[in-house]
Amino acid sequence: MRARTDESEFAGRRFGAAAGATVAALILLGMVLLVAMSNRARDAALERERHAYDVTLLVRTLDATLARSEGALGRFVLDEQVNVSGSIYANEWRLAGTQLRQLERLVRHDPAQAARVAEARGYYTQHGNNLARVAQAAASAKGEGGLGLFYTYTREEQNGSRTLGSQLRSKLSEIAAAERAVLRNSMEQTEFFSAQADRLTDYLSWLGVIVGLAAIGLGILALQAVRQNFIARREAETLEHAVAMRTQELSAANEALRAEAEERELAEAQLRQIQKMEAVGQLTGGIAHDFNNMLAVVVGGIDLARRRIGGPKREIMQHLNNAMDGATRAAALTRRLLSFARAEPLLPERVVATDLVNGLTDLLDRTLGERITVRVQGNSEWPIFVDPHQLENALLNLAVNGRDAMEGEGVITIATSDVILGEGEIAGLPAGDYVRLAVADTGSGMSEEVQRRAFEPFFTTKEVGKGTGLGLSQIFGFARQSGGEVAIDSAVGVGTVVSMFLPRTTVEAPEVQFHSIVSHGASEPRREPEGARILLVEDDPRVRSATVGALEDLDYQPVACANAEEALAAFETGRFDLVISDVIMPGMTGPELIRNLKHRYPELGVLFVTGYVGEGEGEDLKGYEMLRKPFTVGALQDAVAAALGRAEAPVRAA
Questions:
Q1: Distance between CA atoms of 577 and 601, rounded to whole angstroms?
Q2: What is the pTM assigned to this prediction?
């Protein structure tokens, strides 16, 4: 702490010393600049003063020269001695012209003086011309020939007019007076700037003394700084040693914590593995229990039908129908497991929820029974992008749950509406446009505890054997996969409303037509000629044999292959109207086979049959008919007719 304080004081002193030195340097520089400026101003004033002296002296000299020239001319007029007086006149007059030119050069930078000198030049020229005529008259006429002209040009008239000589001397007097004014001003400026330069020089001397004292002080501070720096380095070395020791201690503690964290992570991994095994055991037990019940129905129904093969047909058909119902429930349970585990991808398409719900009315009426009233309120117009068959199963499951909650009698309302949600208004959904599909019942309702656990797999409030606990889990997984959410609004004794919120879409997707494992009604009229040639590709021999038998009963001409290679070889010997292919097979998969065949036979009809669609296969199935295993002969008939009709549609359109 003390070292840090000393370092702060040292830094403060260094900053103060640097700031003081900077200020002193700036002041010194300013003083030097001021002294230089004062000296330059004084020199300029002295220069102007010398110039004024030169101009004034030259004007006086010019005036004297002019007077001597005129005097010499007067003597020449009187005595007519050309060699003496005439020569003096001529020489002096030329000298006056030379001096006038010098005066013009001296005042060329002063516009006012230059103008005055120009006027003097005019007077000089005119007066010279007049004097030249006097000299010529005196030289030629003899006697008093030039005397009259001389007096005419050099004497003032009675009316007050001035001669050119007097005007020339008056102009020279103006020039001299102007230069004397400049001289006085220059002398005053010279005195002012000289005094100012002397003052600044004194200040500069005192500032030099102050800077010298400051330098001594800075030297003292520098010595103190060096001493404190030495002390600070010693303290820093001591502190670094202490920090190194502390770092070593912290490193050892960190290693201990890391080892403890690894042990804890290992323990947590073991605990998770135990919990996972418990969950797997619970899952296996639940599935085994439900499948055993369903298989008991299937095996019992088939065994009873076989025992009574020679008995009444009605009794045999009852046992066979029970077996078929058990197999159908087992297939539905398998689809729920796959959907819950998200192991089977969705095959979405553009769907209008209101149209889908209206199409489910007949199926709901038959499934729920006569004592349940189904009301449909379709107000939604926005499209959604979902797997329609998964959505149908979800709505059917919700309706069945509502029927069970009402103990087989009551009103179930299925409503569709368009809603605009804010950010986070429903769970974690982003703000935007959604379609709400709500299934409401008038049953016993749910407690808060049941609502919290409603979406847990295998959680059910139904009696043993009446529910798998996967219904709401499947709906939850389907909604999340479709980009939506599920919400429950329930109160004990009032009823329950389960709402699915699915996002509005503008996506256009190729149609993927799924077919149920059983036919819900009469199949569509046959759209293909009887005896159509069908190539069946199925790796399981029992499924292959049963499917060939069903196709022969439907008056088709099937050819069976165990793999894709045999299918490609079969096309080398003949043409087919339709290919029925399993999706997952050893070697080349069903979608890969169809891509190969479609490249060569674009008009070929295609029907996929599968019990499971693997990850990444969903995109390859778009645009084709799909039939899930297991299936009935009626469901196969509907799917084959739809596939052949789809293959004929492009030909008719062309």
A1: 10
A2: 0.40
